[in-house]
């Protein structure tokens, strides 16, 4: 009965029923999903990063392929013979044109740096994929969070308006009693003080609702004129699996943020391997073909020569072979730092999983308890009103009872929203937020009644 009374109370003092065209413009959570994902800046920035990581992997494989270069040189030579004892040569200035074509093909046979770079490219691809998944799941979660926050703000406004209406009615009754000479001025002042406080609460709640709509539009990326209310009651089953340790293991294994730090540590290790491989011997096969067309010179006529060379090349770095010093030690230190960051992320995720799991279980139980408490608070209001009408009670008793009933309703609604948000947070920590969760929340919306409109400024 209390549930029906509470719903009737909320509906009675909710904002005026929207027009038909407003209801047609009301958007459910599923309606906002496409724009929220496709136009989300974080998701859009993560997509090309993932593409770039895939291209980096292709480039790393090309490290095993031959390296071919063709060089063409065209030179014009000016030779001035100032003095000579060779009777064949003549003094004076001569010009000669020279052309040189060189084709060089180098095939790596063994280079440890290439294997290390390939390892790093795979780690980079995995990290980019985890970052894209993290951005998508974050966009999903923040959209649901913003939608539920908007509904919660609307419920808070409805309760504030209901409280204001009740106090206004009590104030009218008290003023009428004073007019008949049976009222108490002190009681009237008490009602007035609480009424003004309630009206201030309505204005604050209306501002909070407008801010919630603005946040929802920011997360959705589209204009949101109205949203649908959350049905009551909503299903509040315990989280499955019902073991928090299973959730922790899942989160440590597939949470996108954990995977990102793991892959970053793997990348750091690959960089260390690349730096360490710089001091290892390298073997390559070098083929060179050189064609030279000399226009001539004072020391001989022009000629055309072709030279082919096949060379087996072994490079053994002895000291500062690449001219870059020995960065392996620094790379190893950066790897250890990345590994410790990864472990710190795992511990943080574990703590957050425990908190979210406990909140889901507690709010599911709290909702049942608060529902019983709200029923009791409603009966107290009825009893206090009856005592007052019989002349045995005081007006402040009714005011306090009404205030307690509103507070009970607020706590009940808060437990429901906290349950949903913490359940989704738990799934996000486990790396399991998906379109199915959006569909679940969307199915809990009540589309039969009037929607919640964006407050007018």
Kindly describe this structure:
This protein has 11 helices and 8 strands. With 457 residues, the chain is α+β, with helices and mostly antiparallel strands. The protein has a single domain, classed as Outer membrane efflux proteins (OEP), CATH 1.20.1600.10. The strands form 3 sheets. A 4-stranded antiparallel β-sheet has the order 1-2-5-6, with no helix packed on it. Strands 3-8 form a two-stranded antiparallel sheet. The longest helix has 68 residues, at 112-179. 32% of the residues are buried.
SSE arrangement:
Layout: H1 2-13, H2 20-25, H3 29-38, H4 41-61, E1 67-81, E2 92-110, H5 112-179, H6 185-220, E3 226-227, E4 229-230, H7 244-254, H8 256-277, E5 282-294, E6 303-315, H9 328-389, H10 395-429, H11 435-443, E7 445-446, E8 452-453
Antiparallel strand pairs: 1-2, 2-5, 3-8, 4-7, 5-6
Helix pairs in contact: 1-5, 3-5, 4-5, 5-6, 5-8, 5-10, 7-9, 8-9, 9-10
Compact description:
The chain has 457 residues and is of the alpha+beta class.
Terminal CA distance: 37 Å
Q: Name the CATH homologous superfamily.
A: Outer membrane efflux proteins (OEP)
**Total beta strand runs:** 8
Shape: elongated
Radius of gyration, taken over Cα atoms and rounded to an integer in Å: 39 Å
Please supply descriptive tags for the structure shown above.
two-stranded antiparallel sheet, Outer membrane efflux proteins (OEP), alpha+beta, four-stranded antiparallel beta sheet, 15% strand
